[in-house]
Known about the structure:
Layout: E1 16-23, E2 28-39, E3 42-49, E4 54-55, E5 58-60, E6 64-75, E7 78-81, E8 85-88, E9 93-94, E10 97-111, E11 116-118, H1 121-131, E12 133-135, E13 138-139, H2 146-154, E14 160-161
Parallel strand pairs: 13-14
Antiparallel strand pairs: 1-2, 1-12, 2-3, 3-10, 4-10, 5-9, 5-11, 6-7, 6-8, 6-10
Amino acid sequence: MRGGPSIKHLDDVPAEEMLRFEFDDGRTASIWEKWIEMSPRYVAFWNKWDPGAMTNSHGHTGDHINFILQGEIRCGDTVCTAGSHIMLEWGDTFGPWEAGPEGCELYGFIAGEGSPFAGDQAAFDALLAARGARMVPLPMPTRLPPWAAAKYAQGSVTNWTADDES
Length: 166
């Protein structure tokens, strides 16, 4: 118990580049994340997706919500626009997701420690091939929740290197 509210402004939280893609036409697209609150009981975060940024099918160890603030995210034929609330229970998988032509901004909250696990890698590989895209290796973010960092590094949800060899 903290004894009162924790109040943070998004501008005061550093952004981490979580994923980057390079396309055959030379453009790149990244997903940026700000870890607003981290606790073994919950994780609250903000994402900014560049147009065309994608994620693999994956899930988290904890109930998980995403609320679209701006732009859109596509999952197959389903388009989630600003104002969409997406609820996932512990163990549900989602994706692959792809940001729309204007990108996307979202707020997320995961109850529990939130470690990720990969879903259908073949579907993501097919999406990457269809878009003429490849994941670019990035250094592991510095502000990951410590209880989740090792699990992120082990899975195929990311393309992180162990050092700064990006």
